[in-house]
Request: fold
Amino acid sequence: NGGTLNLESGVLRNKANNKRVVCVSGGSFHMSGGYIVGGKRKEGGGVYIGNGTMNMTGGVIAANHANLGGGIHAGGGAILNLSAGVVTGNQVVESHGCGNGGGIFVTNATLKLSEDAYVTNNILQKCRCPENDVNNTHGGGGITIGDGSTMKMSGGYVTGNDAWLAGGGIYVGFYGKKVDFVMRGGTIASNHVHIGEGGGLRI
Reply:
């Protein structure tokens, strides 16, 4: 709580059930290298940030599972800055229920994606939500931007992500909720959605 963590190299790995790898509450997390792998939690399998700041300038967050944010969950006024590094191979899985954000889930927080950051090959698996859900209340293979949140994309890459219901690459805003999305650069490409809207981007 309120501290600072710097990850420059090495591997942070979880082997237990229902445990995330990194939790930041009111502090700062700077990731310039290394790996965060194997986390399993309802919110943020790899990294959970609540009312804190995460700066990712390198490293890999991979092979984590969750209901909300397989790789990263940012909430409670958190600020998530991704300018390099890779968030890949993370999943929202059916065993965790209907969820959002295979790679990243943001709620009441800010995500800034820039330069050479990659959010790629993350998956939002088929869930128990009805296939005739016209409002697409679940989505985001790569990234989900939830209630009261902001995403600013000036660079980076959102590619190769897969969602069952909506927003293969990025899902912006739940039905009737206010969010802000600004894109001034970067690439959203080669994402896929199965039965809903927005293979690349759903707003």
Summary: The two ends are 34 Å apart (CA to CA). The first strand starts at residue 4 and ends at 7. Residues 94 and 127 are 5 Å apart (CA to CA). The chain is about 0% helix and 50% strand.
